[in-house]
Amino acid sequence: MTTDEQARLMRANQANWDARTPVHLASRFYGLDQDLDPARWFASFEWEDLGELDGRDVLHLQCHLGTETLAFARRGARAVGLDFSEASVAAARDIAARAGTDVAFVRANVYDAEQALAGRRFDVVYTGKGALCYLPDLDRWADVVFRLLRPGGLLYIVEFHPLLNSLGPKPAPDEGPELLLRHDYLGGDGPVHRDATHTYTDGPAVEGATESYEWTHGIGEVLGALIRAGLTVRSLRESDELPWPRWPRMVRTPSGWWRLPEPRIPLLYGLLATR
Ligand SMILES: C[S@@+](CC[C@H](N)C(=O)[O-])C[C@H]1O[C@@H](n2cnc3c(N)ncnc32)[C@H](O)[C@@H]1O
């Protein structure tokens, strides 16, 4: 796929995220109508891997409403959130202001992040939980991340495991609680095109730009892109828990997150790499 074609599909995604934003703001999913607790979006292993954030420059790529970005600021980081959706960035600024938390938000495509941040470098780049699937080219992305990091800086990706994305319920008319391997684990066959008026939250229907494009990235592809960019992979964790119940049969764990009762499979991974 040419870079022009990639740019066209990312423009469609940008319009789709602008259209999804009011739905997410009206939903209960992000807890905006309750006591905002940004830390609930993080597994305890994430904080272990990230280490001390006080006084560090942390960049959150594809931050959406900035609900996770706030958690970095609350741990003393100089936090910056970046997202290409104008509506998301406007909402994120508003949410942070109402929470009385000091976070800067920048509107830009990840691929243009260096220019948008005027060459600023970071101690930590964090991304994930539904971010990499919107990126058509991981090699190009990893090169950008490398340049955004100071020497010694760390990249932390916490992403839905490709195995989770491969699962789906039995198609009608046999629908039931069982999950089957229904979608590709490995990428390479171009984007998955969606046209949906629903999003992953509750709330009203999405209006207007309902089309979006997602790319499948296996773990090997992610690791390969990081290594080729010159980053050193330090750790890879696989977790069977998710912050919300993706499937009706998931059960709550003592941590307050959710897992499948059986079999025990990875649903989320945390990958730490350094420059
Ligand atoms: C599912 S959210 C992930 C953020 C966060 N984990 C969350 O759940 O709120 C995906 C975000 O990626 C953003 N996004 C998608 N493609 C992007 C790109 N190429 N550059 C910048 N942001 C992008 C969207 O606007 C959206 O806000």
Rg measurement, Å = 18 Å
Oligomer type:
single chain
Ligands in the model, by name, code or SMILES, are: S-adenosylmethionine
Model regions low in confidence, pLDDT < 50 over at least 5 residues: none
Determine the fraction of residues in helical runs and give it as a percent range: 25-40%
Strands in their spatial order, largest beta sheet: 3-2-1-4-5-13-10
What's the overall average pLDDT, rounded? 93
- Decide which structural class fits the backbone: alpha/beta
Number-wise, the strands total 13
Percentage of β-strand residues:
15-25%
CATH architecture name: 3-Layer(aba) Sandwich
Top-tier CATH class: Alpha Beta
Largest sheet: 7 strands, mixed
- At the fold tier of CATH, the topology name is Rossmann fold
Question: How many separate domains?
Answer: 1
SSE succession = HHEHEHEHEHEHEEEEHEEEE
Number of helices: 8
The CATH superfamily turns out to be Vaccinia Virus protein VP39
Structure description:
With 275 residues, the chain is α/β, with parallel strands linked by helices. It contains eight helices and 13 strands. The chain has a single domain (3-274), classed as Vaccinia Virus protein VP39 (Rossmann fold, 3-Layer(aba) Sandwich), CATH 3.40.50.150. It has helices at residues 3-26, 44-50, 67-74, 86-98, 113-116, 138-148, 162-166, 219-229, and strands at 57-61, 78-83, 103-107, 122-128, 149-160, 167-169, 179-181, 192-195, 211-214, 232-239, 251-252, 258-259, 268-274. The protein has a seven-stranded mixed β-sheet, with helices on both faces. A two-stranded antiparallel ribbon has the order 6-7. It is globular. The two termini are 29 Å apart. It binds S-adenosylmethionine (SAM).
